[in-house]
Known about the structure:
Layout: H1 7-36, H2 42-51, H3 53-72
Helix pairs in contact: 1-3
Amino acid sequence: MNKSISLSKAATIAGIGLLVMTLTVPFAEFKIIPDLVNPNNALETASNITNNLFLFNVAIFLIFITIVADIVA
């Protein structure tokens, strides 16, 4: 049984994956994580993550979505 998809469907799926990555990476990597992480002070970073757990979870979720979209694309 040959279950292959057409080239146009494959291109559409890859394009959607790239679009998802384009939308999720900048928000997680350039907005949320720099606000939470201080590379010179581990205690401040831990405090920021503890005090903003929702944002930290959103960043982790966006990075996970990016990884899944990268695998699909």
